[in-house]
């Protein structure tokens, strides 16, 4: 098993210095080693279009701002810090679950889009995805808060990768519940907090709602909703749902993360388990144990 953090810094620097007409082809070459992230998509995926949809750095504007931001990521030693964090976290996880099957993992780090109001606003300059086993995607704008959380963010996504890895929890897009994703976000944050503490380990978008009982009650009411197409509002909130054409349900940004943390913390407190030990626990068990403890 190997963790490969793609060294995307030199290529992104070249893209941002190249003529605009050359940039799409250069970017495609950067993204191709991580194309397996989209292996469940039907047909051939336009990697450059997916980069744009995912709030990746623009190819036709904001060059100077992006160049400066890219250097900030480089100066923060982002690539090596992420690699060290993932390897350290994997060692902790395997100590807790020695029989876990771990795939080879490819990590793609890209700079975000400063002109994307949703990315820079509600998402606080960070998006990430670790739900496809074998791939971790990290998209940052170098706000100081994000640079401080580089390791914790990477470890959060690693937790998803391992929970849904070979022989682990099965994610069926048609039947999976909101409860599964909410619990998975709570488990991933709990693992990051186990390693880096509460201040850095919490996903930032969920922090404002950690003690909001109305948000908790609303999310709990939707835990049995099925089908991935319905998840955005329940987990990420209404603003993100509207952006991607989903139906709002009356929740703020990061609601599912906040509630997932509360459910998982109650479960861990009741059972005495660590987040690493609870990696593969059934989400229904987490929910039932947590709600019974209230």
From TrEMBL:
> What protein is this chain from?
Uncharacterized protein YjaZ
- What region holds the DUF2268 domain? 101-287
Q: Which InterPro entries match?
A: DUF2268 (IPR018728)
Q: Which Pfam family, any one of them, does this sequence belong to?
A: DUF2268
Q: Which organism is it from?
A: Saccharothrix texasensis
């Amino acid at each position: 098993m190997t963790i490969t953090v793609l060294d995307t810094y030199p290529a992104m620097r070249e893209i941002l210095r190249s003529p605009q007409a050359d940039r799409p082809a250069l970017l495609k070459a950067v993204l191709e080693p991580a194309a397996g992230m989209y292996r469940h998509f039907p047909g051939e995926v336009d990697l450059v279009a997916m980069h744009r949809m995912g709030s990746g750095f623009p190819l036709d504007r904001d060059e100077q701002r992006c160049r400066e931001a890219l250097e900030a990521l480089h100066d923060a030693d982002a690539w090596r810090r992420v690699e060290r964090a993932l390897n350290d976290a994997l060692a902790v996880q395997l100590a807790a679950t020695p029989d876990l099957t771990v795939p080879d993992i490819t990590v793609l780090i890209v700079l975000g889009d400063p002109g994307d109001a949703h990315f820079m606003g509600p998402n606080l300059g960070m998006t990430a995805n670790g739900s496809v086993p074998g791939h971790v995607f990290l998209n940052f704008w170098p706000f100081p808060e994000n640079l401080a959380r580089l390791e914790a963010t990477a470890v959060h996504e690693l937790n998803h990768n391992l929970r849904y890895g070979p022989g682990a929890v099965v994610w069926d897009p048609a039947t999976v519940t909101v409860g599964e994703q909410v619990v998975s976000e709570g488990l991933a944050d709990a693992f990051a907090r186990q390693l880096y503490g509460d201040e850095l380990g919490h996903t930032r978008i969920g922090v404002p709602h950690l003690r909001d009982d109305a948000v908790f009650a609303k999310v709990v009411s939707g835990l049995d909703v099925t089908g991935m197409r319905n998840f955005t509002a329940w987990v990420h909130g209404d603003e993100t749902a509207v952006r991607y054409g989903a139906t709002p349900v009356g929740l703020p940004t990061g609601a599912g993360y906040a509630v997932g943390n509360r459910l998982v913390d109650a479960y861990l407190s009741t059972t005495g388990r660590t987040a690493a030990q609870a990696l593969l626990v059934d989400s229904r068990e987490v929910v039932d144990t947590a709600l019974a403890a209230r």
